[in-house]
# Entry
Amino acid sequence: MNHLSALVSCSLLVVGAPALAQSSAAPASGANAQLKTADGKDVGTATLTQAPDGVRIAIALRGLPPGEHAFHVHAVGKCEAPGFTSAGPHFNPGNKKHGKLNPDGHHAGDMDDITIPANGNLSLTIVNKDITLDKGKPNSVFQAAGTALVVHAKEDDYKTDPAGNAGDRIACGVVTEGPAKTQ
# Structure
């Protein structure tokens, strides 16, 4: 009888194991964003993947003005022209101040500037250690309001609250779950 009880108990553990494994939230397989200008022109893609050191954001941009540009994660998944103000402020689940030079900490959506070369095209991978693709976490890009990636007209000064004097928003893309979309 003891063998039968042990066998039934082990069987229940094995059968119940998949349900237990599914109860912990796993990171999404990936995310992407299609970046557009205010006039609707496609200017690139971003592919987001979870990595041990944060979220890797692989961007492929084209046709943007050359120079230094701020590049941020914004707190709302909307990119309505003309000014993309619908994307809200920088993604800031920790209620920090703006900029990596701020002694009070920085927004999770603050990232280093990107440098667009003279031809207007840039392929680059950035790691943001302050965000995750793990759904349900406060710093997940998959919030109820969504999130967006935004390229600004000017460089970020890394200290001025709330947006680093980065100027107008010149390109925007809503972050969506799933593999990269090809154009």
